[in-house]
## 1
Amino acid sequence: MKRKRVFILLAWFTLVGFSAIGLALIYYFQEQSIYALFFEPLQWYWQMLIGFLAGYVSAIIAWNIVNSKFLSESSEYYSNLIQQFDLNKSKIFFISICAGVGEEILFRGAIQYWLGVVITAIIFVAIHGYLNPWNWRISVYGLVMTLFMIGIGYMCIYFGLISSIATHFMIDLVLLNKLNNSRIRAESV
């Protein structure tokens, strides 16, 4: 029960803390407006549509890689990790929103401004533990995720930050649900 509470608190911190840090960096240290970052060049509803579609396609590709025999050991590890938190659909939705909004505002909205798309993507994936020099199999998955994060970075530039948020949200939503459901199926067999 304590782990679940800590996990939810971390989700809240990601949403509120990362967003606040990112927005402060943008407001005080960048020459771009926060409004333009979110709502230009495309209108918010086009950004969301593009982001949801890109996120769903990316998540399906990522799931096929994670669910392959090549990564079966890592897949089992992540399924067991998710199992510890006893996540239901509403918690998965909440966590996906928190990560999508908070991490994208900080990384794509703020950090990418100074480090560029590629370096920001590499740092983002490395922080999540997918570029691991001691586990080359998970690093292969990390390279694929780095390509996805590079795509999300360019989406932010060419479509707007909402498209990046929507993509990240959808990737997390689909992957967390699939990991959670694979655990449930394995327990019922």
## 2
Amino acid sequence: MSQSSPLVGAVIVGTAQVLLAVGAASRPGRRNLYIANNASAVIYVGPSGVLTTSGFPLQPNDWFVWDSGEDLYAIAAGAGNDVRVIETL
């Protein structure tokens, strides 16, 4: 895989915040993070410390692009929510 190839993966979001990244850490030099809520529940995204009461709601089947190298986290009201991510340079 070349350095410029996108990284694609799934993140399981539950009641504790989780980093939205492919793997344990964000890709160095990442420019864009594509996020798709593949679950049947709302997830909430935001900076570290995000809560369901403070995060940006992402409805089921919705997606958006985070065009920042800053880390983004997600949380939900229940466990087992499938979120798909793509990290690009």
